[in-house]
Amino acid sequence: VVTGPQGDRSRQPQILHRIFTNQWEVQEPTGNFQEFSIASLFLAIDSLNQLHLVWQGNRYINPAAVIQYQKRTTGGWGEIRQLDYDDIQADLSSLAIDSQDNLHIVWHSLHNLGEHYRSKINYLKYTALTDSWSAIEILEQDDRYDFVITSPSTALDSQDHLYAIWKRWNYNKIYQIEY
Fold this sequence. Notes:
By secondary structure, the chain is mostly beta strands. Helices cover 0% and strands 54% of the residues. The protein has strands spanning 16-17, 28-29, 37-45, 51-58, 65-73, 76-77, 81-84, 89-97, 103-112, 117-127, 132-133, 137-142, 147-156, 162-170, 175-178. Strands 3, 4, 5, 6 and 7 form a five-stranded antiparallel sheet that branches. A hairpin with a 4-residue loop joins strand 10 (117-127) and strand 11.
């Protein structure tokens, strides 16, 4: 991932990819971006060898961070799709692909409640057969003042059972892993 310096609007970030067969091929950019930086980049490959990217795009306007998705087929890179944002930020995405090439995406987001924030873990599914996205589902949320749930990850077992895991912590430094 190549990004412009923080605050430097003269350089837009790029996501570059390379493929290794017997040697590394030349880098290829995936598209044009409007964000000033890119973070939490996650790559998965389906059974048709199509590349699926999910990342956090950081912006100069609110919401300051959004979740983006892009797919590469044999025809090249598709359009960038904004999957979600909350009014403050959406970040730390994770992606898994099941045996039917359906995508399962989880991410963390914050919503402004006035005096404090609601921390959420979100889930979204893309169904390959119907080329459709589900509604966003909230897997977990915490409205308490000093608690944050973050750092989600997802995976599938051999029977396509989906697992999601995340970290919950508070400002007293009490940490726990949940699923």
